[in-house]
Amino acid sequence: MWGLKGSNLRPSAVEAYPEGNQRHLSAESALYCRVITEGIFGFRPTGLDSFSITPQLPASWNEMSLKNLIAFGGKKIDIEVNRSGSRIKIDIIVNGKQIKSVLSVNGTKTEIKL
Predict the structure, then answer these.
(1) What is the overall mean pLDDT for the chain?
(2) Terminal-residue alpha carbon distance, the chain
(3) Which of 70, 63, 75 is nearest to 99 (CA)?
């Protein structure tokens, strides 16, 4: 279930089997995370040490980032997207080290090999 707070869409605490003071979010609330990772960033695992991203930076945003994504054997991945004129700059940082920087058209797929 989704709830509105101001103009922000957020998951609401609704349980399929209520267990004391709504301590858990229902499985449907996990979709909120997928909207960001898969929808806006277009994050898709493609192998045991590779993924693709297809960032969709909204026209009114100058930047967006996804920080501390833990995947691929415990690697800490940061994805930073910044507007650069009519293009976007994508930086991929793994365990604190930049492994890829690319200037791309918004909505274009980029392949990443760790």
Answers:
(1) 82
(2) 36
(3) 75
pTM comes to 0.73
**Pair 33, 84: CB distance under 8 Å:** no
Judge whether 65 and 54 are in contact, CB under 8 Å: no
What's the rounded mean pLDDT across residues 90-98?
98
**Cα–Cα distance between 49 and 62 in angstroms, integer?**
29
* Sign of the CA dihedral running 87, 46, 70, 96: negative
All structural domains of the chain with their residue ranges: 1-40, 44-114
**Res 25 pLDDT > 70:** no
Collect all residues with Cβ–Cβ distance below 8 Å to 82 and sequence separation of at least 6.
62, 63, 88, 89, 91
